[in-house]
């Protein structure tokens, strides 16, 4: 599970902070960035906060630049459409604001284990009991999904290889139909296995 | 009682399987259109299929589970995107729209029906997988980017041809899966084994 995630191991104070706290902090800062009127002071101080937090997390400018690079298409699109529809200052302020929030959210992802975040979600979802949804069942579905992704990716690989070995061209239909049938059979087998082991 | 529990476990594994399927359909080639923030993949096809095969609540649940895993830091969105940052970017509305889109598709395909017809699947995929997704996607993109609604709507037109192809694909695929593995569909009171039902 860790191999699949975007988490970067570390021992900084941000890594050790509780996942729920980090999420709340992120929402507060994101809210501040989007509700308060954009000014040089607001965007400037937010930029400083973001840079300092990345340094505190021991991630450094390299990781920060990587995060910005990851949304380069987004920045390009926003620049083009923003300049088309908005005055220059507003367009720049919007882009800066959004990049800052996304990069800040990236920090939570980089410093928090997927399992810790999932546990925090389970706590946050406990009010769902009121509408008769069991948060433990939600966790079971999430855990099963994580286990099933590599299985289905394996099916997809097999189907692609089989198609290639028959020399046919890769048609979406001849790929997705067997993928769905294999996956759904697997799902029913999984349910039978869970019942046989006395789950539930 | 036992059968009830079995069927609910079967529901859970199916939800998890579709969560994984939507993730895997986002894997192959995310094609980033020049200068556009939201890449084209088969992921939206997965959303239509989830609703059409599983019905409204299981379909919506499987998309919701995918979004929770993404928020927890797994790179399961098209093109390997993930982390809580995507919920602060311009595509957040499309992600929320996926949940409702799967539900609407499921409602149109399943409500009062005992088997999928091509008309219902095509209509459901279009209204659910395209219109509903845009209904949430475009206004929220406009809010996040600060670009006026009309401009955002025009920019999104670029995805319409691809989406229409996906509606056609979804229709063909759902009917093919119905022929190949009807057990997968959760139609109410549909005879699971028609031959046995007929002989009684």
Terminal CA distance of chain B reads 24 Å
Bin the helical content of chain A: over 70%
Ends apart, CA distance between termini of chain A:
24 Å
Number of domains of chain A: 1
Major sheet of chain B: none
Unreliable stretches of chain B (pLDDT < 50, length at least 5) are 1-6, 29-38, 196-200
Q: Could you tell me the radius of gyration of chain A in angstroms?
A: 22 Å
- Silhouette of chain B: globular
Biggest interface and which pair forms it? A-B, 72 and 65 residues
Shape of chain A: extended
- Class of secondary structure makeup of chain A: mainly alpha
Number of helices of chain A: 9
The structural class of chain B is mainly alpha
Description:
- The complex is a heterodimer of chains A (200) and B (200).
- Chain A is mainly alpha-helical and 200 residues long.
- Chain A has one domain.
- Helix content of chain A is 77%, strand content 0%.
- In chain A, helix 7 crosses helix 8.
- The radius of gyration of chain A is 22 Å and the shape is extended.
- The mean pLDDT of chain A is 85.
- Chain B has 200 residues and is an all-alpha fold.
- Chain B has a domain of 111 residues: Arp2/3 complex 21 kDa subunit ARPC3 (Orthogonal Bundle).
- In chain B, helix 2 packs antiparallel against helix 3.
- Chain B starts with a helix and ends with a helix.
- Chains A and B meet through helix 2, helix 5, helix 6, helix 7 and helix 8 of A and helix 1, helix 2, helix 3, helix 6 and helix 7 of B.
What's this, in brief?
The complex is a heterodimer of chains A (200) and B (200). Chain A has 200 residues and is an all-alpha fold.
């Amino acid at each position: 599970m860790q191999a699949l995630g975007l988490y970067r191991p570390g021992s900084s104070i941000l890594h050790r902070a509780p996942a729920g706290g980090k999420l709340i902090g992120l929402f507060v800062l994101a809210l501040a960035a989007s509700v308060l009127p954009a000014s040089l002071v607001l965007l400037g101080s937010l930029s400083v906060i973001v840079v300092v937090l990345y340094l505190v997390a021991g991630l450094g400018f390299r990781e920060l630049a990587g995060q910005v690079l990851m949304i380069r298409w987004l920045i390009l699109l926003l620049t083009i459409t923003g300049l088309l529809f908005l005055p220059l200052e507003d367009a720049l302020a919007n882009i800066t604001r959004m990049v800052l929030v996304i990069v800040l959210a990236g920090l939570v992802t980089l410093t928090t284990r997927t399992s810790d975040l999932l546990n925090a979600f389970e706590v946050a979802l406990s009010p769902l009991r009121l509408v008769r949804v069991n948060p433990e069942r939600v966790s079971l579905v999430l855990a099963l999904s994580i286990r099933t992704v590599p299985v289905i990716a394996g099916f997809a690989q097999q189907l692609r290889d089989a198609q290639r070995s028959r020399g046919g061209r890769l048609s979406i239909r001849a790929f997705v139909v067997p993928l769905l049938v294999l996956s759904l059979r697997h799902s029913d087998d999984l349910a039978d296995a869970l019942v046989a082991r006395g789950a539930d | 009682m036992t059968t009830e529990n079995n069927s609910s476990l079967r529901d859970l594994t199916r939800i998890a399987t579709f969560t994984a399927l939507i993730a895997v359909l986002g894997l192959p080639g995310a094609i980033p259109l020049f200068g556009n923030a939201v890449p084209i993949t088969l992921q939206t096809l997965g959303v239509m299929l989830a609703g059409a095969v599983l019905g409204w609540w299981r379909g919506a649940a499987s998309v919701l589970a995918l979004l929770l895993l993404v928020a927890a830091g797994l790179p399961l969105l098209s093109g390997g995107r993930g982390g809580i940052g995507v919920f602060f970017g311009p595509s957040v509305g499309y992600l929320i729209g996926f949940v409702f889109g799967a539900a609407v598709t499921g409602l149109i395909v399943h409500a009062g029906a005992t088997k999928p017809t091509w008309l219902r699947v095509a209509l459901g995929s279009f209204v659910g997988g395209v219109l509903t997704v845009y209904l949430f996607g475009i206004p929220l993109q406009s809010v996040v980017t600060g670009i006026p609604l009309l401009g955002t709507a025009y920019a999104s037109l670029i995805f319409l041809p691809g989406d229409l192809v996906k509606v056609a694909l979804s229709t063909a695929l759902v009917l093919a899966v119905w022929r190949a593995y009807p057990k997968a569909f959760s139609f109410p009171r549909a005879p699971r084994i028609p031959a046995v039902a007929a002989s009684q």
